[in-house]
Write a structure and sequence with these properties.
The chain has four helices and ten strands, in the order ααβββααβββββββ. It has helices at 9-14, 27-31, 82-89, 95-98; strands at residues 48-52, 56-60, 71-77, 102-111, 114-121, 129-140, 143-150, 162-163, 169-176, 179-186.
């Protein structure tokens, strides 16, 4: 928390300073399809623009060998500080407060190298999805990357929930003047298990 007072998520959301429910040009838009590859390991793909807003540019690659496109967004928010985003992104259990499709975000275990976090994703026109993610933070020169991937060990899902086979991602938050530059990329499992 680095001596910065946490900012109430609802307050930020209501003032439009933080991505959240009902804010059509921020991370809420990115959340369903945009969850970032922690590491590509191969030559980065070419991206085709999808759409742009005043704050963000969205793009996607062609599907990979498994049929997954890599989706990315780049957003510039001059009125949001890295500390404000840190109060939400670093605290895994708070994700359900911000993103409407995350119905549950429960920390199962904290470790030196990150945390194991259970997510329940709900959205119209799809079965509820359940996954245990490994989540961690990496330092960047002027900020942090908040990363996740499907954990190696997956408990059985609750009855009626679909398992998630792939959910790799990250938000990279970098200081840009008094605000932030946020990069989001993803190769999500859109079809479920």
């Amino acid at each position: 928390d680095q001596g910065v007072a946490p900012v109430p998520v609802a307050s930020l959301r209501s003032h439009g300073d933080l991505p959240g429910r009902g804010d059509s040009n921020t991370l809420e838009v990115m959340w369903f399809p945009l969850l970032v590859l922690a590491a590509l390991g191969a030559e980065p793909p070419a991206f085709e623009p999808l759409r742009s807003t005043e704050d963000c540019a969205f793009s996607a690659s062609a599907p990979d060998e498994h049929g997954y496109p890599i989706l990315k967004a780049e957003c510039s928010w001059p009125e949001v500080s890295p500390a404000q985003l840190d109060t939400v992104l670093r605290h895994w259990e708070r994700h359900r407060e911000v993103w409407s499709m995350v119905a549950d975000s429960t920390v199962l275990e904290e470790r030196a190298d990150g945390a194991r976090v259970r997510h329940l994703h709900v959205a119209p026109l799809m079965d509820d999805r359940e996954v245990v993610l490994r989540m961690w933070v990496e330092d960047e020169p002027t900020g942090h990357s908040y990363r996740w991937t499907v954990a190696d060990e997956q408990p059985p899902t609750a009855e009626g929930n679909e398992p998630v086979l792939r959910d790799d991602g990250c938000y990279t938050v970098l200081r840009q003047g008094d605000g932030v530059l946020v990069f989001v990329c993803a190769a999500p499992d859109l079809a479920g298990g």
